[in-house]
Write a structure and sequence with these properties.
This protein has 8 helices and 14 strands. It is of the alpha+beta class. The chain has one domain: 4-Layer Sandwich (Glutamine Phosphoribosylpyrophosphate, subunit 1, domain 1), CATH 3.60.20. The strands form 3 sheets. It has a 5-stranded antiparallel beta sheet with strand order 12-2-3-13-14, covered by helices on one side. The chain has a 5-stranded antiparallel beta sheet with strand order 6-7-9-10-11. A 4-stranded antiparallel beta sheet has the order 5-4-1-8. Helix 3 (100-121) crosses helix 4 (127-140) and helix 6 (189-199) runs antiparallel to helix 7. The longest helix is centred in the middle third of the chain and has 22 residues, at 100-121. It is globular, with a radius of gyration of 20 Å.
Length: 275
């Protein structure tokens, strides 16, 4: 125990110069705190809640990210109102798919990583830099993924230099790929992606992009049991983030309700959404 003049002083690790990465710092001095360093018992099989489905849509002034609210555990609905879309920092958002607990912990660590970089360097990390930092964190989780606890998020943000919204997807090994116009991840992504291909247009406005995202989630829920559609009875709507030059803004329920109700009304007598 530290006593006397040494009491209250930071250890030498906090005073040494080095990387502006918070994850690198923790990995060097307290690696057991990182989610990727926690080993599972050999031969263990763990049933954990999984999050699905996230869609992203670019528009003229930025990008929209929307996620359904259902988490599943096998054939059971584990949670009906889970949040899957989070702000990365002021100009970016992360949507999670995969093992929910580890994904949420990884997102929280990513948020600290970006804030730590900004404090150390005195400037925001570029959007591509943020995407690559997230890729390295996913890559570090590969050991857990090999044991069935995979995390495959999607990242989107407003690029201040290029003045446009951009989307980045990942694979389980940490590969990072830029997507154009729209993308989706999660168990319902196949159906959402087909919907996005038909609905996206270059001249979309922010409100139209939100409507396209919600309709894509509606189509995903129509064919994927793990994706939860808008729950009118419980008033559970998708989580929607709009990211533009002003930053990240999450739409309130009162803003989403008329959009969701318009999508549902448009499907009455036309459940497949034929145009």
């Amino acid at each position: 125990m530290t006593t006397g003049a040494d009491a209250g002083r930071l250890s030498a690790a906090y005073l040494a110069t080095g990387s502006s990465s918070f994850t690198d710092f923790v990995g060097a001095h307290a690696p057991h705190l990182l989610p990727s360093r926690r080993a599972l018992p050999a031969g263990s099989s763990l049933e954990a809640p999984h999050g699905t489905t996230i869609v992203t849509v670019t528009y003229g002034g930025g990008v929209v990210m929307a996620g359904d609210r259902r988490a599943t555990m096998g054939n059971i609905i584990a949670n009906r109102d889970m949040e899957k879309v989070f702000a990365g920092d002021e100009y970016s958002a992360v949507g999670i798919a995969g093992t929910a607990g580890i994904a949420i912990e990884l997102v929280k660590l990513f948020q600290v990583e970006l804030e730590h970089y900004e404090k150390i360097e005195g400037t925001l990390l570029s959007l591509e830099g943020k995407a690559n930092r997230l890729a390295s964190m996913i890559r570090a989780n590969l050991g857990m993924a090999m044991q069935g606890l995979s995390v495959v998020p999607i990242f989107a943000g407003y690029d201040l230099e290029r003045e446009e919204g951009r989307i980045f997807s990942y694979d389980v090994t940490g590969g990072c790929y830029e997507e154009h116009h729209h993308h989706s991840v999660g168990s319902g992504s196949l159906f959402a992606r087909g919907s996005l291909k038909k609905l996206w247009r270059p001249e979309l406005g922010a409100g139209e992009a939100v409507s396209v995202g919600i309709e894509a989630l509606y189509d995903a829920a129509d064919d994927d049991s793990a994706t939860g559609g808008p729950d009118v009875g419980r008033r559970i709507w998708p989580t929607v983030a709009v990211i533009d030059r002003e930053g990240v803004r999450f739409l309130a329920d009162e803003e989403l309700r008329p959009v969701v109700e318009a999508v549902i009304a448009g499907r009455e007598g036309n459940p497949g959404g034929a145009r």
